[in-house]
Design brief:
Blueprint (H helix, E strand, L loop, with lengths): L1 E2 L12 H24 L11 H26 L11 H30 L5 E3 L3 E3 L9 H34 L3 H5 L2 E2 L3
Antiparallel strand pairs: 1-4, 2-3
Length: about 190
């Protein structure tokens, strides 16, 4: 085994840009989910009551920026071909699952913005600066956006679990290079 040297994708291998974006966003999204769950139980008098949401919003903004970059990168680059022994059903299911991951991520991020912008308050990035936002776009914006944000986050985590199980199946059952490919490992020629 050797590490991938190229930053762009090829027909057989993800490049370093895609690999780093994948793992960076995976860690950030799982961390945001855990922090979000923790925050739902905070009371007004909890010492983390103000800081928790600020961390959640700041990381959420970074995830939004990286998701937009990742989507553009994905549209402008090749996608490695699926393993030859995949059935057409598996390939179609994989494409649908990947598109659903992107879609749900953007639903979560946009609903999070609507929550943060409710009442025209903007997003405070720690004590550094505030990202101003529009006034409410619709009545009960924070409440409706909060419901969408909450349930979409659980849907995303469900898809992440399915995605992880599929990668493990490829590695341990199918014994193909799908997981090694996303880890940046390449078979020696």
């Amino acid at each position: 085994m050797r590490f991938v040297k190229h930053y762009k994708n090829s027909d057989t291998q993800w490049g370093w840009t895609s690999i780093l974006l994948h793992w960076l966003l995976a860690v950030a999204i799982i961390g945001l989910f855990a922090l979000g769950l923790y925050m739902t139980d905070l009371s007004y008098y909890d010492s983390f009551y103000t800081l928790g949401p600020q961390i959640h919003e700041a990381i959420g903004i970074l995830v939004l920026v990286f998701m937009v970059y990742r989507l553009i990168w994905r549209l402008l680059n090749k996608t490695p071909k699926p393993p030859e022994k995949n059935s057409p059903f598996i390939n179609t299911a994989s494409q649908i699952a990947h598109k659903a991951l992107y879609l749900i991520c953007f639903v979560i991020l946009l609903s999070g913005l609507l929550i943060s912008y409710a009442g025209g308050q903007g997003i405070q990035i720690f004590e550094w600066f505030r990202i101003p936002g529009p006034q409410d776009l619709f009545e009960n914006q924070a409440s409706y956006a909060g419901e969408v944000h909450y349930y979409s986050a659980f849907a995303l985590i469900g898809l992440v679990i399915l995605h992880t199980l599929a990668a493990l199946k490829h590695h341990f059952v199918d014994k193909d290079n799908t997981l090694k490919n996303m880890l940046g490992l390449k078979e020696k020629p």
